[in-house]
Write the structure tokens for this entry.
Amino acid sequence: MISVCIATYNGAKYIREQLDSIIPQIGDADEIVVCDDQSSDDTVSILTSYNDPRICIHRNEVRLGHVRNFEKAMSLARGDFIFLSDQDDIWLPGRVRNMLARLDADPSVNLVASNFDLIDAQGQKMGEFRLLGATKKTKLAQIGAIFLGRAPYFGCTFLLKRNLLKSGLPIPKGIESHDIWFALVASSIGSVFNLRAPTLLHRIHGKNMTAEKRRALHVVLRSRARFVWALTLRLISLKLKHA
């Protein structure tokens, strides 16, 4: 079973185009888990208008923010294979099939990520993102590349196995990026496969949740320190659990 997790917030302008690119790629027994973070536009009414039992809509009673909203969606997912999806992108045909094939090819892989093409608010192509190269040969090198920003992971490109959810959830307090967190956990307990080809169109429109401005060095270092501490504690906890 496949679960597609979408965190929405005032996404009425683009959510229909995204759903229309996802629905043809999933089966009758699959699900789309949408957690809406108190949208004030027509996002929820557009979702309900599909009248599709596979679309499970959960409205937050209070604003959770981007990371916690995705965390909630993942915690509600019932599938063995979990795709993460932004509300304003467009999946390319064959995305689901191609990414699942990579999981089937290697049992050690618990996360598949990919590159993508860039589009603007009107859907016109702006460029290509091809910075995600092959994973490193050792776990330490892979984790180091993530920490140093040399392995740029975007959650909107992720396919995860359920076992990774069990290891990665809950997301520790103070962690500001579910993308980096799950890439780190996946690289620590198994392996990651990076598809060099694009699997989606990532829309840039000025209201994206991902920050585009460079942050001060001390802010970045403080963030990375939180990741190191949180990952260390999680790996110790997992080791004790399986001892």
About this structure: The helical segments are 15-22, 43-49, 66-76, 95-105, 139-147, 162-168, 178-189, 217-241. The longest strand covers residues 191-203.
